[in-house]
Write a structure and sequence with these properties.
Distance between the termini: 40 Å
Structural class: mainly beta
Helix content: under 10%
Strand content: over 45%
Number of strands: 11
Shape: globular
Low-confidence stretches: none
Number of helices: 0
């Protein structure tokens, strides 16, 4: 059974930084494309960032371009989301997701593409 465990959320001031982590267990990490999504209260889930299997391709939401970086560590079977220059509108629960892609080198931005999800970690940015 594939399990995704997010960590690293918390309370940060405007302009601050956080690094979210998502540890993946129970599957073949090297076969997965990974993504980060978020959901703010009263809003739909939205795409944040994605990375292809092997890390050759990345994709970012327009709202996060230049402010975040997605990366993976295959040895630790972990995906990271480094977020900088945080704004109050970044406040949300952040979820990581995994898609079993076998050999594809694409990054996927639609939540419908993903097979596995974590429970989420809360990020709160104070003004």
């Amino acid at each position: 059974q594939v399990q995704l465990d997010e960590s690293g959320g918390g309370l940060v001031q405007t302009g601050g930084s956080l690094r979210l982590s998502c540890a993946v267990s129970g599957g073949t990490f090297s076969s997965y494309a990974m993504g980060w999504f978020r959901r703010a209260p009263g809003k739909e889930r939205e795409f944040v960032a994605a990375i292809s299997r092997g890390g050759r391709s990345t994709s970012y939401a327009d709202s996060m371009k230049g402010r975040c970086t997605i990366s993976t560590d295959n040895a630790k079977t972990t995906v990271y989301l480094q977020m900088n220059s945080l704004k109050p509108e970044d406040t949300a629960s952040y979820y990581c997701a995994a898609k079993d892609v076998k050999f594809s080198n694409s990054a996927y931005s639609s939540p419908a593409d993903y097979d596995y999800w974590g429970q989420g970690t809360q990020v709160t940015v104070s003004s």
